[in-house]
UniProtKB/TrEMBL annotation, chains A, B:
GO cellular component term of the entry, any: aminoacyl-tRNA synthetase multienzyme complex
Entries under CDD domains matching the protein: AspRS_cyto_N, AsxRS_core
Name of a matching Pfam family: tRNA-synt_2
Domain Aminoacyl-transfer RNA synthetases class-II family profile: 265-572
Listed name of the protein: aspartate--tRNA ligase
Length: 572, 572
């Protein structure tokens, strides 16, 4: 059986009329769904009191194939075969499958038919409960009243659909339900998953229309009729709840259920896996350096201080010193994936106070470009791996947050800082003239655009930054004392990795530290560690959330952090 | 050319005379080495002043194939083929190889011959510099004076040895040096690598002998002659510097160079790799939960507090709540590898204030044993992987810290808490009668012994701990309200993992929290998250350092932590 009115896919590139029509339909569906959810929730709340009566009623009706299961306390081991929603396709047709999933939406059609959408992670499938055979009318009504987001066990026969079900990921099959049990019942949701899942272009369009109408309304020459018409249009324009990023984060456990968000964190997991796979293949080993440290590692200004028994301590701003300690200790190639803490009061789209650092450090034989090549190979391997192994997840993100596919080549275009500055200077715009030998954020973004236009790629490397803008432990260029053997990696014009050859000579390190005004006693141990023989080495640190945000073009790093931390957010 | 006096391997199972003889020889070697190191270091220190004069001298002698290289600033890219020490074996014979390694030891034999041991990580090889051909007498003398632990580039011909070189890991080959350059020169070491590498049984034997002599000296009936003899024996007995664990940690970068320690951290990296490999194969995804949190997650007593902008925050004592949040958010199987912070003032062999948690949480269909089975499969896969993939590292650890190979079966023996308590009760010893329904440390150790004797394994599981000793969020057993669906995993009689089925029902969770005297408002958000439908789930947390310590029988968790943190240690 196939549903007669499939919900069209939301998409960014539709004509205005199609979009309007779609909005209208979605709005209607939303109202119906909301009313039903409210009703179901009311029932669910009041249900506690007369559960027993109801249960009695159910038994009379014969509920051997439907109902609510008691809370699972692991009473028995049952040998049953389960099927994942993601596994359902043409090859499942004709089989009876047992599925555990969330009831995403349900729609009663009359007394004897109910359409249900089941969701598991980023996969959805349509199920139909119809009166007939062992299925009673009460069963159909019961299913229609199960609160959305409840977890259910469904036994069903898989049938092929005549028309693809566009509202589900599993479009070619449908489930004919033969038994339906609630495993864990939801109550009234503070936010609707549909609202959290709505495609960004649709919301942006609404926002834009609203702005335009408000601008028209500000026109003082309007007569009363015109005003009334515009006001009406304005009220009609607000069709969808546009849940703010903050409200989403306040309800993170719900917000994460959205298929696109499920996919973002599956991709995040993938970045870590690919990072490690590649480095382990190249002979790296993984280390775990301490996060509680006795002195500020990078800069005293942006460090979190904590009480440590009878003294105090700090949270590591990077594993820099420890990675280098590993190098001094003959672990020639090391990486670490771990939290990095920055007490910077930066409230931007790309700063977090706690993020995941993908760090590496390695010795090289002759030239730090051996390390830069490793970083290039590493990042492009990650990009390639995401593309090839996570196509479903990318599609799912794309549905809610359409983005340009990430372009890269290997080897990636590489420029010196001066070359990159010259490309910006060619614009003949004073805003893009680099000052103080460093890019600002706007200049970086613009550089990304220029390189995308010229070279067709979203990933590039800038080498030979000037010594003055890098830390004291950065190795100066041997040919030009103004340059450093230091580099940044960029994705879509935003920095995702900063790295350099480090000074491995105690004498030079002390000299440079002094020149930077650093109190030598504070870092004596660090300096001393290079006195007992140390290979030349270089490394870098990649911000995991930035990589995910920029690869997917998400626009806000909070979308790429499981539970983001910023100066104003400590929960959940 | 083969060295005539190879240093014998230190081993724990030698006869007393052999051990004595060995000790004597090692002692002699130590004295020679120390004198030489001192001399070399003096030269190295004073060398700065007359470097130019010396360089001049060297040029006159023709040093095209030896000398000190300038600090590497990545001046040029040189295309050269490098060989790792680990790659050297019979198949290398007849080749000329280029190697970068540490000069581990060197021994001049007369004016024209110098034996050198080169070390890279856990691998060592013998090299010989002999006058003849392009090699001058000055070159031989230069090599003999290079400070130990300097990093050197050596070009050499590989030859087969007639007698295995027992003092090196690469026993069947030797290098005939044709060029020798110092890449990074070491200064006088605060601790000798030989002392840090000495086999533990040898040190223990010395300790024991010393104790015995001191006991004899305490005998008041001794005459003067006897006293003098014993004092002499005592002074002779102290042959080896026994570097304390604390002193080792104070000089961690040197201590980690020791082959056994190199191996420990390669194994630690291996545990993480195997953990992830197995879980990714089983469909888990990796998450990264915040470490800075707004409220103490487990217990207020043992939490670190920090300043967070204008408020304060805490360091996560476990990712428990976040793993469960991931479950509520439909990530059905999640794991995390990350730091865990405990402000407990425990100064024991197995407690750290910061350690690496290997955490997992997963939904199950019918019974939490699905999760316990996963944990069993996971741990035994890790043990198996260490055994098969890291034999060289295990051998290297075993050389310094001999240990009984870790025994396990799959599935592992599994007991209920009551069964395990009964096994202890059978001993008829009041010390082993379990009180307050929980084991103490001694009882756990003894339990490990009993199970090793009865079942021949070092890994086992205890299930069904009593509810009263587990956190409020633990699911009670459905058949016996005194029991919980809670388990611990043990290695060699020490707990390495604690886990349970969690309460996924908001109502029961609130009830249990109240019964535990918890203020509901403090955890309202946590309780609420289970109101919107949540699958039954269970999980556990494994301590990485404990797994490594116990697998290798190291006896102190600090040996398995890169830079351990305890109540009295915050550095390095």
């Amino acid at each position: 059986m196939s549903e007669t009115t499939p919900v069209p896919v939301e998409s960014g590139d539709k004509s205005a009329t199609a979009l309007k029509k779609e909005q209208k339909k979605l709005e209607k569906e939303r109202k119906i769904a909301e009313a039903k959810a409210k009703k179901a929730a009311e029932k669910s709340v009041s249900g506690e009191q007369n559960k027993n009566e109801k249960k009695q009623e159910q038994v009379e009706e014969n509920n051997s194939n439907w109902g609510e299961l008691p809370m699972n306390q692991s009473k028995e081991k049952i040998k049953r075969e389960w099927t994942d929603v993601s596994q359902l396709n043409e090859s499942s047709v004709g089989k009876s499958v047992l599925i555990r999933a969330r009831l995403s939406t349900s729609r009663l059609q009359g007394a004897n038919l109910c359409f249900v959408q089941l969701r598991d992670g980023l996969y959805t499938v349509q199920a139909v409960v119809a009166k007939g055979g062992a299925n009673s009318k009460s069963m159909v009504q019961f299913v229609g009243q199960v609160p959305k987001e409840s977890i259910v066990d469904v036994q069903a026969n898989v049938v092929a659909t005549s028309v693809p079900i566009e509202s589900c990921t599993q479009k070619t099959v449908e489930l004919q339900v033969t038994s339906f049990f609630v495993v864990s019942k939801s109550t009234l949701l503070p936010l609707q998953i549909e609202d959290l899942s709505r495609s960004q272009p649709l919301l942006d369009k609404q926002e834009e229309d609203l702005k335009q109408l408000e601008q028209l309304l500000r026109n003082t020459n309007l007569n009363e009729q015109e005003k009334t018409d515009l006001e009406k249009k304005k009220s009609e324009c607000i069709k969808f709840v546009n849940v703010s990023q903050e409200k989403r984060l306040d309800n993170r456990a719900l917000d994460l259920r959205v298929p696109a968000h499920q996919s973002i964190f599956r991709l995040q997991s993938g970045v870590c896996t690919l990072f490690r796979e590649q480095l382990l293949t190249e002979g790296f080993i993984e280390i775990h350096s301490p996060k509680i440290i006795s002195a500020a590692s990078e800069s005293g200004a942006s460090v979190f201080k904590l009480n440590y028994f009878n003294t105090h301590a700090y949270l590591a701003q990077s594993p820099q010193l420890y990675k280098q300690m590993a190098i001094c200790a003959d672990f020639n190639k090391v990486f670490e994936i771990g939290p990095v803490f920055r007490a910077e009061n930066s409230n931007t789209h790309r700063h977090l106070t706690e993020f995941v650092g993908l760090d590496l450090e390695m010795t090289f034989k002759d030239h730090y470009h051996e390390v830069l090549d490793t970083l290039d190979r590493l990042m492009t391997t990650i990009f390639h791996g995401l593309e090839t192994r996570f196509s479903k997840e990318l599609e799912s993100v794309n549905n809610q947050y359409p983005f340009e596919p990430f372009k890269f080549t290997y080897p990636s275009p590489r420029f010196t800082f001066d070359e990159a500055a010259a490309m910006l200077a060619e614009l003949n715009d004073p805003d893009y003239i680099v000052k103080d030998n460093d890019f600002n954020t706007r200049q970086e973004k613009r550089l990304g655009k220029i390189i995308k236009e010229k070279f067709g790629v979203d990933f590039f490397i800038v080498d030979k930054f000037h010594v003055e803008v890098r830390p004291f432990y950065t190795m100066p260029d041997p040919n030009n004392p103004q340059w450093a053997n230091a580099y940044d990696l960029f994705m879509r014009g935003e920095e995702i990795c900063s790295g350099a050859q480090r000074v491995h000579d105690a004498e030079l390190l002390e000299k440079n530290a002094k020149a930077h005004g650093i109190v030598i006693e504070d870092i004596q141990g660090y300096i001393d560690s290079f006195k007992y023989g140390c290979s030349q080495h270089a490394g870098g640190g990649v911000g995991l959330e930035r990589v995910v945000m920029l690869y997917l073009g998400l626009g806000n790093i909070r979308k790429a952090s499981f539970c983001p931390r910023d100066p104003t957010r400590l929960t959940p």
